[in-house]
Amino acid sequence: MPDTSKLHVVSVSGNEVWAGGENLRLEHSSDNGATWESVKLPAKNGYEHAITHIRIRTPQEGTINSDDGTSWITTDGGRTWK
């Protein structure tokens, strides 16, 4: 993870690990954290938000919230966020 943004939250479901933090930084691992992939969330009111909550409900559905109340949802396992 080369970005210097601080991470604030982690969500784990099975082998899936999601970590989020400053500047909408979202990282994902599908192998218990052995390898990581950066995930770009679509901008909503800029990129200065900090991710404050990650909730993975099922392997396909999840929600991310930021410090100003902005939220993103996925219905495809995190491949896309709206």
Short key terms for the protein model shown above:
single chain, 82 residues, mainly beta, four-stranded antiparallel β-sheet, three-stranded antiparallel β-sheet, 7 strands, globular
Radius of gyration, whole Å:
12 Å
Specify the biggest β-sheet.
4 strands, antiparallel
Strand content: 35-45%
How much helical structure, as a percent, in the residues?
A: under 10%
Separation of the first and last Cα atoms: 23 Å
- The shape is globular
**Oligomeric state of shown chains:** single chain
The tally of strands reads 7
Can you describe what's shown?
This protein has 82 residues and is mostly beta strands. It has no helices and 7 strands. The protein has strands at residues 7-13, 16-21, 26-29, 37-39, 51-56, 62-66, 71-74. The strands form 2 sheets. It has a 4-stranded antiparallel beta sheet with strand order 1-2-3-4, with no helix packed on it. Strands 5-6-7 form a 3-stranded antiparallel beta sheet, with no helix packed on it. Strand 2 (16-21) and strand 3 (26-29) form a beta hairpin. The protein is globular and about 30 Å long. The chain starts with 6 loop residues before the first strand and ends in an 8-residue tail after the last strand. The mean pLDDT is 91.
Task: Compile the SSE list and pairings.
Elements (H helix, E strand, L loop, with lengths): L6 E7 L2 E6 L4 E4 L7 E3 L11 E6 L5 E5 L4 E4 L8
Antiparallel strand pairs: 1-2, 2-3, 3-4, 5-6, 6-7
